[in-house]
Amino acid sequence: MVRPKKFLGQHFLNDENIARKIIGYLPAGYSNVVEVGAGMGVLSKYLLADDSLNPLFFEVDYESIKYLKVHYPEIQAKLIEVDFLRYDLSQIPAPFIICGNFPYNISTQILFRVLSCRNQVPFLLGMFQKEVAERIASPPGSKKYGILSVLLKAWYDIEYLFTVNESVFYPPPKVKSAVICLRRNETGQIGCNEELFFKVVKTAFNQRRKVLRNALKMMVPAETSLPASQDSRRLESLLANRAEQLSVEDFVFLTNWIAACP
Questions:
Q1: What's the alpha-carbon Rg for the chain, to the nearest Å?
Q2: How does pLDDT run across 141-155, given as a tens digit for each residue?
Q3: Mean per-residue pLDDT for 3-11?
Q4: How far is 137 from 116, CA to CA, in rounded Å?
């Protein structure tokens, strides 16, 4: 068997038990499924075998594409040989769920892409580098809690499912992996300007060692305080903390305060 080369940081899953376990977490009730990084088809074949599903497969590695077409001829009409990050996702019937053993080098970019079309994607099931998965799933107060943790939790409920050892991949990575899932929550509008919310979260974590009073000082005039009708004590408490201590709701509160500043 000719194996495709590692591409874009991808390590190809070759353990059937793990593949079946991952597929078992796909939720019922959705027919449109998008696999990002089909690789050697270890997940793809289970999606193809399920008559209730209408799967699409993204793959850009030439050797992987050749392998898929030879070993799974039925995939050809469903195979999109385009970079998922560049594809116009409005062409895919919504809602659609996303799954895959994601290439490590673009896994966070995939998540930001999902955020941008969150109303089309009610569920994501994916394999990530363990460190990345832990960061995404971490709660406030954790040292691993970061920008993606906050932004994703604003619109998704996140669950860390299980850890995956290095030995089940070809070539074996130097780190462990993990499978997580994201379920779209009921949040529509988060209650603040979303562009400013993203900016506040990124600014706060880009200087995560500083308390927020200092980390955000370039975003508000000196000596600015909340209008008397708002909870100034809550504001003072939040500004005395670091970014990792704040929940999504806290960041929404701060965003609205910054938006109200003269």
A1: 21
A2: 999 999 999 999 999
A3: 52
A4: 19
pLDDT on residue 2: 42
Q: Are 174 and 166 in contact (CB under 8 A)?
A: yes
Q: What is the pLDDT of residues 210-238, one digit of tens each?
A: 999 999 988 876 665 555 555 788 888 99
Q: What is the pLDDT of residue 3?
A: 47
Closest CA to 160 of 115, 198, 129, 202: 129
Task: Please state whether beta strands 54-58 and 32-36 pair in parallel, antiparallel, or not at all (unpaired).
Answer: parallel
Q: Give pLDDT tens digits for 158-208.
A: 999 999 999 999 889 899 999 999 999 999 999 999 999 999 999 999 998
Task: Write out the two tokens for 64.
Answer: 């992987």
Which residue segments constitute the domains of the chain, with CATH numbers given? Answer: 12-184 (3.40.50.150), 194-260 (1.10.8.100)
Amino acid making up residue 152? L
Summarize the chain as % helix, strand, coil (round to 5): 40, 15, 40
Residue type, 47: L
Rounded to 5°, the CA angle 55-38-11 comes to 155
- In single-letter form, the type of residue at position 130 comes to K
Unique residue bearing structure tokens 């955000």? 216
Q: Which two tokens stand for residue 72?
A: 């799974």
Distance from C-alpha of 83 to C-alpha of 60, rounded to nearest angstrom:
6
Q: What are phi and psi of 161, to 5 degrees?
A: -90, -60
Contact 216, 203 (CB under 8 A): yes
Mean pLDDT of the chain: 91
